[in-house]
Every structure is written in structure tokens, then in C-alpha cells.
UniProtKB/TrEMBL annotation:
UniProt signal peptide: none
Coiled-coil boundaries: none
Stated name of the protein: Cellobiose 2-epimerase
Pfam families, A to Z: Glyco_hydro_76
Classification via InterPro entries: 6-hairpin_glycosidase_sf, Glyco_hydro_76, MUG_Protein
Organism: Bacteroides acidifaciens
GO terms under biological process: carbohydrate metabolic process
Length: 207
């Protein structure tokens, strides 16, 4: 496993390889290819994507686990940003290669994120299901969902995320106009993170 490909999360320690170091590298590789037309970037992006899918994709729901260590032990935590970046990576690779498997991968993972993450009942309206992960995790997921929407024109997942964010913004801001990390309204957090509010600038600009 030590020499099995993929990108380490921390080059100084080299203890594990994470989705969050490999998926963004795939996205970057495709973008660099688009800018430079240097095929090496595209080939590396394809290689990194394939490694991540092989080692860190849950075959049951097509979501991505967090990391795998050098012994081959997998940390099976699932975070919205990991799957979001792999959705975006799949869409970009589909656009550049025309290989529909990348698009199918992205669609399957998007469906998995909706089933797994959009499950928390809203405080004011329990019938409304809210994305349960932290706000800035959700916004990274949204990048992938929007990239997918631009290709397959299915608005379901982007609409759900946008509706969640707008509802939270209109319903749960504090006296300073800030939101916590929980969009469902259940957790009244005394202190707010800049990350969980700054990320909304990106999301609202994108919708």
C-alpha cells in the first residue's frame, strides 16, 4: 500500500492518503490541462481519480470515505466535501474525455449525497430535510452539484441545497446576522465560525 499511488494528506508525515488530498488534485489537474493543453496534467488527473475511486469509494452508496492509511485500514467517515470534490472531478473529466463513466460516477455520487446528507429535520418544519454537514462542507459539495447540473440539467440536487441555504438564512441568523454551522436550526451556537458564513458568499453568488 505504501507505494500504491495516490497523494498523501501530509507530505511531512506520510501516514495516510485522503480523499481531500486526491479529489482536489484531480480537479486542479483538469483545470491546468485546460489552461496549458499539457496532456500530462490530464493523465495525472485521470490516474488520481481512478486511484481515489478504487480505494476510497463506498460501493454501496457511491460516497467517499475519508482516508486510507499505509496498512490499508480505511477511515470510513463520510464528509460532504469529499464526495462533492469527486463529483466535480468526474464532471470535469467527462467534459474533457467524453467518457460517460465519469458522468455516471458523478450522478451516482450526487444521488448518494442527497440520500445520506440531506436527512436532518428542520426545527420549524420537520417535513423539510436539511443537509446535516457543516455549512462550508455543504458549499464544497455544492460546487460539484452545480458542475453536474450544468451538464445533465437535473436541478434536483442544486435546488435542494439552495433551498436549504436560503431557508437557514431567512430563519436562523442571530442578532449579528450570522449563521451557525447547522442549517436545521436545532443547535443554537453561541460562537459562529467565519468559515460557515464566508462560504455563503460563494454559495449565494453561485445560485
Amino acid at each position: 500500500m505504501k507505494w500504491g499511488g495516490g497523494i498523501f494528506w501530509c507530505e511531512q508525515q506520510k501516514e495516510a492518503k485522503h480523499t481531500c488530498s486526491n479529489a482536489p488534485s484531480t480537479v486542479l489537474g483538469v483545470k491546468l490541462y485546460r489552461l496549458t493543453k499539457d496532456a500530462r496534467y490530464l493523465e495525472k488527473a485521470k490516474e488520481t481519480y481512478a486511484w481515489t475511486k478504487k480505494h476510497l469509494c463506498d460501493p454501496d452508496d457511491h460516497l467517499y470515505w475519508d482516508n486510507i492509511n499505509l496498512k490499508g485500514d480505511i477511515s470510513k467517515d463520510k464528509y460532504a466535501y469529499n464526495s462533492g470534490q469527486m463529483i466535480q472531478a468526474g464532471v470535469l473529466l467527462y467534459e474533457e474525455t467524453g467518457d460517460k463513466q465519469y458522468l455516471r460516477d458523478a450522478q451516482q455520487t450526487a444521488a448518494g449525497t442527497d440520500a445520506f446528507f440531506r436527512t436532518k429535520a428542520d426545527k420549524k418544519d420537520p417535513a423539510v430535510k436539511v443537509h446535516k454537514d457543516m455549512a462550508w462542507f455543504n458549499v464544497i459539495l455544492f460546487r460539484g452539484l452545480k458542475a453536474l447540473y450544468k451538464v445533465d440539467k437535473n436541478p434536483m440536487y442544486v435546488d435542494a441545497m439552495a433551498d436549504n441555504a436560503v431557508h437557514a438564512w431567512e430563519s436562523y441568523r442571530d442578532e449579528n446576522g450570522l449563521l451557525g454551522r447547522d442549517w436545521s436550526g436545532h443547535n443554537e451556537e453561541q460562537y459562529k465560525w467565519l468559515l460557515d458564513n464566508a462560504c455563503l458568499i460563494e454559495l449565494f453568488a453561485e445560485i
